Amino acid sequence: MAKLLYSATASLDGFIAGPGGDMSWLTEHLTGDNPTAERLLADVGAILAGNTTYGGDDPNRGTDREGAFGGQYHGPVFVLTHRPPAEPPAGVTFVGDLHRAVAQAKEAAGDRYVNVLGANVARQCIQAGLLDEILIFFAPVLLGDGVRLFDRPGGARVRLAPIEGESAHWYRVVR
User: Fold this and answer.
1) Nearest 10 degrees: CA dihedral of 76, 78, 84, 88?
2) pLDDT digits (tens, 9 = 90+) for 90-116
3) Which of 4, 21, 49, 132 is 20 to 30 A off residue 100, Cα-Cα?
């Protein structure tokens, strides 16, 4: 059965996007080999993103690296939104309910990962007890402001446990 994994690249001060969702800061940090990211890409069977993330800034916009995983991901995408477009693009399913979106994405992923993209959807998945794992890549920069990796004012603590044999920042959500 598929697992739900929230993966993101964050600044050292905990932001995944700059003010207004700006992702241009990330471009200079997406160079070079990243064996963990390459291995993850091979294990992703579906993507679940929020509407803001899906329609937001892409640090590779207008290049051959535009899209998820630097344009290397080619598979089903599920977008959690209450405002689907009148004519959805091929390969993209818009779903208005979190549990239904997760179920559809897991079915599409089979025994691979559903990669959650976007802090808001990740927060909703954690609150609903649906998120299984978290993988964070850190870029050597301090953004100072923007979209936090995880923001849940007044929320309860979420315990994480390192996954043995994985990257230093790949964790299992402890339930």
Assistant:
1) 0
2) 889 999 999 999 999 999 999 999 999
3) 21
